[in-house]
Inverse folding.
């Protein structure tokens, strides 16, 4: 039972930043990854679409007998986590609360910036989560609609990337924030560029790292840590073209994925 | 129900490093703190004594209708956490796993040092916890029997403190560790001296900060975050002299405690 896989779902390849942290921080765990590349990005979709697409991914995962589900997409987390936690009988972790908690631990001035997709920012999920825990935290939200398409197009460094990052984020340097949450799992891929363009003193929180750690806590708490000494297995699925997914993952992460399978999930709407 | 307090227990004043982090990271939560100052330090006691004393503290806490228990003492965590989690019907968090998880996230070379009391080191709890999650982590243990008596005697800086810290820890600088866990909740009080005496590149993990954060995760996960807008209340109890406890806390933390009550817990043995 303990060697059942963790399920990781995302709108595309961004959630791989979470998957790699799971590999690193939980090296005994098996996982299955599903990226809904066909319908990516979720950040510009409406609430009903995000809800429907995410539920379809969850159904796919539940058939794989996962022991824990990680919603490795901030937008999907913002719109579905509460519903899923109420209706599905396995532990489920999103990426928003772990990032929020890390920011609460890190901030000294209680001034936190959040950058994310339009849909995540519109959901106000980070602000609500931060304020629910600490009402004295002041939150500055900033939507970055260009970042996911830019990253999915392979631009993670160089002058074009720097120009887009700078023009999107420069106004944040005038705020009093001492902590910045990367509220989209794609953003760790451009973390160096973001750090370069932001005030040096601002500490950057990557939800991915924090989510892997919180997954570890929840697995431990439920007595679900894998005890097998076999090498872990990782299976990757995409709703898009498997070669495209592999190549993009290789380009972005400089690490090759062993097996990527292209799948059709029920009711896929493009 | 949600405004029920968190219970925090420790062998003495060291657990206040956890309590202050709970105040900071969970500012809406009420808590009750109990320090078993009369029988401190636990680090030099045997297994049966540690077990018995901790259970007496837990019984006191359960009568206070707490919603979550934090064992803010590494030694007590090492010897009782598993038993308590199996036998008591509220969520219980120790300080070892949160510190271990933070170290796993932080270490790059998979080489981690642990400093703690003799009893904690002898339990091998950190090594077991780290290796359970990541078998490739190499752990160097170092018992520091002089630190708790030194801190409880009020020495947290100055030449005497520096001399003791240096002579205890200097051998660790020859190891390949890149991360050092403060495996005793007293040790954050001498964190600056420790950092000064250790190789600059070694990152220091304070279980207290990490435990408060993991408490936040568990409360959130169980839907137990306090929603009241009243100012939180903090009650402090000691098995020793309340004035002594207050003064020591004031000296160590430069923050005064509102109410400290001296109590007798059942079967107290000196």
């Amino acid at each position: 039972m303990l060697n059942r896989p963790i399920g990781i779902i995302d709108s595309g390849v961004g959630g791989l930043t979470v998957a790699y942290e799971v590999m690193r921080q939980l090296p005994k765990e098996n996982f299955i990854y599903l990226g809904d590349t066909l319908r990516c990005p979720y950040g510009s979709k409406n609430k009903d679409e995000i809800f429907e697409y995410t539920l379809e991914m969850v159904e796919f995962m539940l058939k794989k007998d996962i022991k824990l589900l990680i919603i490795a997409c901030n937008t999907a987390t913002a719109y579905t986590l509460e519903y899923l936690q109420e209706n599905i009988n396995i532990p489920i972790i999103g990426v928003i609360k772990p990032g929020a908690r890390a920011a609460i631990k890190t901030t000294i001035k209680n001034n936190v910036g959040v950058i994310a997709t339009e849909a995540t920012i519109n959901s106000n999920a980070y602000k609500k989560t931060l304020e629910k825990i600490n009402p004295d935290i002041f939150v500055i939200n900033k939507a970055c609609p260009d970042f996911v398409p830019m990253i999915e197009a392979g631009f993670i460094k160089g002058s074009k990337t720097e120009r887009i990052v700078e023009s999107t984020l420069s106004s944040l340097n005038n705020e009093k924030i001492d902590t910045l949450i990367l509220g989209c799992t794609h953003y760790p891929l451009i973390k160096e560029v973001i750090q370069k363009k932001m005030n040096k003193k601002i500490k950057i929180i990557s939800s991915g790292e924090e989510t892997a750690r919180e997954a570890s806590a929840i697995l431990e708490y439920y007595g679900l840590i894998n005890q097998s000494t076999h090498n872990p297995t990782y299976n990757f699925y995409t709703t898009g073209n498997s070669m495209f997914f592999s190549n993009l993952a290789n380009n972005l992460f400089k690490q090759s994925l062993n097996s990527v399978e292209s799948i059709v999930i029920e009711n896929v709407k493009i």
Observations:
- Chain A touches chain B at residues 25-28, 91, 97-98, 101-102, 104-105, 132-136, 209, 212-214, 216-218, 220-221, 225, 229 (CB under 8 Å).
